[in-house]
UniProtKB/TrEMBL annotation:
The protein, known as: Ribose-phosphate pyrophosphokinase
SUPFAM superfamilies, per database record: PRTase-like
Catalytic center residues: 202
Co-factor note (free text): Binds 2 Mg(2+) ions per subunit.
Length: 321
């Protein structure tokens, strides 16, 4: 019986090519050539410029807005790339979803609402995805929306390394969860940092608006690190930081895996009392914005290791042990 030779093919969507290039470099590989275009009416077109027959294809895409693309374009382009790869006889297709768009719509918060996070999972499966690689989903339970393997990573060790390198006094340090839903992750972060934890409670009277209603824990004289999965308009973040300062916090830092920075986000952060906002490059942040209070760390090496382990049937969990 002839042994089938495995081959990996790595391609990038239009939204986050810088991250894809970094992943390719860390894998000592080259990005494949794929033609991606928009027709005059806005429809998206994809065609692989090289054979992917029998290859294990990995498609890197962030489902978010970028220059010339909105979140819906990003999702549709990924689905079309998956379909094209399957029809070109790829052995398997892995969607490397650096940012999983629509993740906040993971339940029915009011009658007659959709569960769009589940719909996105169904669309990826219907397009032909065999495996998903992603990082810091809005809720861990989103993994259960899939009937296929989901390799769910976390950027927390990257943030721990960064803040540990700052030489902050652990006796004064306090990790703060901006809401109850993030408390479990904040507890893990505080354990890794060997410091105190505080938990905030917030209400959302409407979309992109938050009100801090309670704080559990003592932040008097503390250096606080607000930890969340994403920053959108930064309204919740700035409100939380202002509350912490009013409660006696000495300094407030913030970190989140996904820096969406929609609308007034950059101005809100610049005018806030926050010392620094640390995000990763799961969502592209323009170079001109990576100054002042906004710091961007790379998840490229982490994605590269995960892709390598998935391709070679290794353990992904071992990367976080």
């Amino acid at each position: 019986m002839t042994e089938v030779q495995k081959s990996m093919a790595l391609f990038s969507g239009s939204v986050n090519p810088e991250l894809a290039e970094e992943i390719a470099k860390d894998l000592n590989a080259s990005l494949g050539n794929v033609k991606l275009e928009k027709f005059a009416n806005g429809e998206i077109y994809a065609r692989y410029q090289e054979s992917v027959r029998g290859a294990d294809v990995f498609l890197v895409q962030s489902v978010c807005g970028a220059v010339g693309y909105d979140v819906n374009d990003a999702l549709m382009e990924l689905l079309i790339m998956v379909d094209a790869a399957k029809r070109a006889s790829a052995r398997s297709v892995s969607a490397v979803v650096a940012h999983y768009g629509y993740a906040r719509q993971d339940r029915k918060a009011a009658p007659r609402e959709p569960i769009t996070a589940r719909l996105v999972a169904d669309l990826l499966a219907a397009a032909g995805v065999d495996n998903v690689i992603t990082i810091d989903l809005h809720q861990d339970a989103i993994q259960g929306f899939f009937d296929l393997p989901v390799n769910h990573m976390t950027a927390m060790p990257i943030f721990v390394d960064y803040f540990s390198s700052m030489g902050l006094d652990k006796e004064k340090l306090c990790v703060v969860s901006p809401d109850v839903g993030r408390a479990k992750a904040a507890k893990k972060f505080s354990t890794m940092m060997d410091c105190d934890i505080a938990i905030m409670h917030k209400d959302r009277p409407k979309h992109n608006q938050a009100e801090i209603t309670a704080l559990i824990g003592d932040v008097q004289g503390k250096v606080c690190i607000l930890n969340d999965d994403m920053i959108d308009t930064a309204g919740s973040l700035v409100a939380a930081a202002t509350t912490l300062k009013a409660k006696g916090a000495e300094k407030v830092y913030a970190c989140a895996t996904h820096g969406l920075f929609s609308g007034p986000a950059y101005d809100r952060i610049a005018n806030s009392i926050i010392e620094e906002v640390v995000v990763t490059n799961t969502v592209p942040v323009p170079l001109e914005r990576q100054t002042g209070k906004v710091k961007v760390l790379s998840v490229g090496p982490l994605f590269a290791k995960t892709i390598s382990n998935v391709y070679n049937n290794g353990s992904v969990a071992s990367l976080f042990e």
